[in-house]
Specification:
elongated; five-stranded mixed β-barrel; eight-stranded mixed beta sheet; alpha+beta; 572 residues; 17 strands
């Protein structure tokens, strides 16, 4: 019995470069369906010789196996069509996950509305989508639904006629209900999207998966303040703002790993509990064991044998691996017990901290710039609809700002030059600052924003800071007054990246530790790196939430992390 699969249409030429990863993921299915011409030619003569002998047996086999083979052929054809369709959609992350058998399989809304042709190639096809209802407009024999499943900021319109199964059930529901829709993709007469789903016959259905009491639902179809949204953090992922922020956050996280992995860095997990204060500021959460009343309470009885804290940075630990494995990075949660309620501070936040062996400050600045530009370019490429949403609803200049960061090299100036520039503008009456600008003082947020927004009109890297402004582990320069440190400043954000070449000389490091009054014995293992085969190395830290703020235009850091932790608030 011979069944020859149909030659699949060549679609590579139809794809943009960003669409090709999806084709790659679908390649095994497409390959399995392609006719094996070479193999067929090699077997042609042998088949002809044996055809007469096998004719009788073949007829019997055909009767026995044709039903199974026909079903298999149909299944493979459907899989090929699905993969071709998804590849045309334009993004690798749009490929069907396959883990939704509870609803019999589904397409994501993004796969339809953000396909290269807006979903027009699917017109006439029967599809299944699931999601949460944003709006319902019901009439006697007709209902209009708009649903969203979190894959995109866009809403898919569903038109349900009375003949469709579940019509009466869905009419009784409102915003917030979850539904499974099975219908036909048709051209949409409405503005805003090329297609919609029509449920117009008994073959189509709308199943209510989860009901909702509209009067009690906290996210009614109206505008809510961001402060109110924080009070219902368990439901705010269903809002357009937090949904878009979450997708951008995901893209930035994946881009972080992709950037460093593509450049040979190793991902290292550093501890959350530590006995060392990386920053030397003392603003740390102490970890203690909670004991029952029956247990003896002894203030000197430490679970870890000595006071331990939640880490403010994984840098000191990741340096250990840098000085043995080369280029490494860590990406994880960090904590700071700073009693601050500003829009820029959290008690729990995430940090990205790479360390490079055999590197200096110049390498550090080059890597930081390349990383930020890569992340921003990925957001522009993979989160187009979300960036458009931010540009419309959050910050009218966000798209232009991101395109500038991705396309233009960053300016650089020393700390001393930055102070001179700021003082010059003050003398000329161009600007007035709340905080004094003087050599030896830290640059404040207002100073940093003026440098990026008005002087450089783009990102800026400031380097060689006074040693009094920076941590003990930063390499002391030859002038004895400054350290090989750098801050990467971005428009609208201020400081985004902080880094330095690390102090590799044991005697200089000891002087810095003692000068800050830190217990040298707590850093014995860190000092050992300088005693045994010390090498020049450098690294930096990126506050992940600030990176999300940069990419979204959102001004409050509490709205770019799923569950913000700050003084007086640790719910959810």
């Amino acid at each position: 019995v011979s069944i020859r699969a149909t030659q699949p249409r060549p679609i590579e030429a139809m794809l943009s470069p960003t669409a090709r990863p999806a084709l790659t993921q679908c390649a095994p299915v497409l390959t399995s369906l392609a006719p094996r011409r070479a193999l067929g030619r090699r077997r042609a003569s042998a088949s002809q010789n044996s055809r007469g002998v096998a004719a009788g047996a073949g007829a019997g086999l055909a009767v026995a196996f044709i039903p199974q083979l026909t079903a298999r052929r149909k299944e493979l054809r459907q899989r090929r069509e699905r993969c071709t369709l998804l590849a045309r959609g334009g993004e690798a992350d749009s490929v069907h996950s396959g883990f939704n058998s509870a609803v019999g399989g589904r397409l994501r809304v993004k796969q339809i509305l953000e396909a290269a042709d807006g979903g027009k190639s699917m017109i006439g096809q029967k599809v299944t989508v699931c999601g949460w209802v944003r709006t319902v407009r019901a009439q006697k024999s007709l209902a209009f639904l708009k649903i969203n499943d979190g894959s995109t900021v866009q809403e898919l319109q569903v038109v349900v006629l009375a003949d469709a199964k579940g019509f009466e059930d869905v009419k009784a529901q409102g915003t917030g209900a979850s539904v499974r829709v099975e219908g036909e993709v048709v051209e949409s007469p409405a503005k805003g999207q090329a297609v919609e789903i029509s449920c117009s016959s008994a073959e189509h259905s709308v199943e209510v998966l989860g009901t909702v009491e509209s009067k009690e639902y906290p996210l009614a179809k109206k505008k809510h303040t961001i402060e109110y949204m924080r009070e219902i953090a368990h439901l705010r992922p269903r809002s357009n703002l937090i949904g878009a922020v979450s997708r951008v956050r995901n893209t930035l996280a994946m881009s972080t790993h992709q950037f460093f992995q593509d450049r040979g860095f190793l991902y290292v997990h550093t501890p959350i509990i530590t006995t060392a204060d990386c920053e030397g500021a003392g603003e740390m959460f102490r970890v203690s064991q909670e004991k029952g009343d029956a247990e003896k309470k002894d203030e000197n009885d430490e679970f870890f044998g000595r006071p331990a804290y939640l880490t403010v940075s994984g840098q000191l630990q990741v340096e250990n691996f840098c000085c043995g494995l080369g280029d490494v990075y860590t990406f994880g949660p960090t904590f700071r017990a700073e009693n601050s309620s500003t829009t820029r501070h959290l008690a729990e936040f995430w940090m990205i901290e790479p360390e490079m062996a055999f590197a200096n400050l110049e390498d550090d600045m080059d890597c930081a710039e390349a990383y930020i530009r890569y992340c921003v370019s990925q957001v522009l490429e993979k989160c187009k609809s979300d960036v458009d949403f931010f540009n419309l609803r959050v910050d009218k200049e966000i798209k232009e700002r991101l395109e500038l960061i991705a396309s233009k090299g960053f300016a650089r100036m020393s700390y001393s030059e930055a102070v001179e520039v700021l003082q010059k503008h003050i003398e000329q009456g161009d600007v007035k600052f709340e905080f004094e600008v003087a050599w030896g003082k830290e640059l404040q947020t207002e100073h940093e924003k003026f440098l990026t927004d008005h002087v450089c009109k783009g990102p800026l890297i400031v380097y060689n800071y006074p040693k009094e402004c920076k941590a003990f582990y930063m390499r002391l320069n030859e002038d004895g007054k400054t350290v090989a440190a750098m801050d990467l400043l971005c428009p609208g954000i201020g400081e985004l990246v902080g880094g330095s070449q690390r102090e590799e000389r044991i005697e200089v490091l000891d002087e810095r530790i003692e000068g800050l009054g830190l217990p040298k014995e707590d850093y014995w293992w860190y000092r050992d790196l300088r005693r045994f085969g010390s090498v020049p190395h450098a690294g930096f830290g990126v506050g992940f939430e600030r990176l999300v703020m940069l990419a979204t235009g959102v001004q409050n850091i509490r709205d770019v992390i799923p569950f913000p932790r700050y003084p007086g608030h640790a719910q959810f």
